[in-house]
Amino acid sequence: MYLKKLLACVGFSLALAFTFSCSDDNSPNRSGPSENIDNPAACSGTLPKGNSPVEAYGKLLAKGNMLFGSKTGCVPVQVRGVSLGWSNTDWESAPFFNSTTVNAMVNDWKAEIVRVPLGSSEYGGYDSDPANNKNRVLTAIDAAIAKNVYVVIDWHSHKAENEVSAAKAFFKEMAEKYGNNDHVIFEIYNEPLDNVSWETIKKYAEEIIPVIRQYSNNLILVGTRTWSRRLDDVIGKELADNNVGYVLHFYSENLYLDRPVEGSKDPSSPTFRQVITQAMNAGLLVFISEYGTTNSDGGNPANGNLYSHNATYTDEWMAFMDERKLSSCAWHVNNKNEGSAFFVPSFSPASGDYNNENAMTASGKYIYNKLRAYSQKLRRGESKFSRLPFPTRESGGIGRRTRLRT
């Protein structure tokens, strides 16, 4: 059954009364224990007020299959935003790693979270030009923190299991520098390929996570097999760390919600809807750290997919993510000649008008208007909150009566 049937069964619907307002405490690093998460009777059902997401929610925490803030008590949170492109030197996306872009994404596009990908080993990446790539990433991270929104520090790679030493060194530096900031989330593996097993990914994660944990207990995101689609591989083989989310990526034009995750390669494979539901029923936190409205090749014109934006399929995904309170980052802030780029090639990262819809692609316009609409609902208090069950390993998962269904 669908989620609204679940809610009728559970009988625990609350109105979300979250609006941004001024606060006496503007400390960006302040966070305390997440009180009343396990005590529904003490749950007020309202999110705390603040003039920014981090001020309102605090540090993000995985609790079973839901995301909470250190200031939100028993009320789960959902944050929505954007991803920059690859940081690689001389790539079209590199000039967007600046405070002008980040400020526009927050002020104008209303992003609550900005993903900052460090291109690791592709040409012009961190392995061949570490200084410039790192400087670009640091600039974007600092800009996001200055705007008091969440920021994902992303090791943007398809073969991180072969880059353990470099990833360790990078995340050691990032965790030591930013680990006490409530804003920061560490994404340690973007998209493993389809020939990389979960066991290999897990082994890599078990190398990187302790490096981060020396300096920070912030949320860590881990990619999954087949370009971060096979959440089902993780079930029963979870990482031991208690503040981890598992990543799923989709591109709605061909990776629509009810498509088998393996497509024609294995039509009997579970659908995207099913793998997410299975993972959540197993108590896993699912995080959509990258999604697009186009074909999964990014809207590549060479493949005839420049105009592959599909609003209908993306709307279906959006409704599903909202039902499940899945946080997300849209791909990507760029002016490359491809459908998933937010801006047309003539757009200037330094001097362009980030509100000019005529300078946006169909995908860019869609994301721009969606994020702004979400922001307006939050400000008017129209968005509804329904408290979903969140299983833990200790409790053995969701019970029969409260199980999420496809």
SSE string: HEHEEEHEHEHEHEHEHEHEHE
Under CATH at level 1, the class stands as Alpha Beta
Instruction: Give a count of the beta strands, DSSP E runs of length 2 or more.
Output: 12
Hey, roughly how much beta strand do the residues contain?
15-25%
Arithmetic mean pLDDT:
86
**In which order are the strands of the major sheet placed?**
4-5-6-7-8-9-10-11
Quick one: CATH superfamily? Answer: Glycosidases
Key attributes of the depicted protein:
about 400 residues, alpha/beta, TIM Barrel, 8-stranded parallel barrel, two-stranded antiparallel ribbon, 12 strands, globular, disordered N terminus
How would you characterize this protein structure?
- It contains ten helices and twelve strands.
- It has one domain: TIM Barrel, CATH 3.20.20.80.
- It has helices spanning 3-10, 53-57, 99-107, 130-146, 164-178, 198-213, 225-228, 272-281, 311-324, 362-380, and strands at residues 13-15, 60-63, 66-69, 80-84, 113-119, 150-156, 184-187, 220-222, 244-251, 286-292, 328-333, 384-386.
- With 406 residues, it is of the alpha/beta class.
- The protein is globular, with a radius of gyration of 20 Å.
- The chain has an eight-stranded parallel beta barrel, surrounded by six helices.
- Strand 8 (220-222), helix 7 (225-228) and strand 9 (244-251) form a beta-alpha-beta unit.
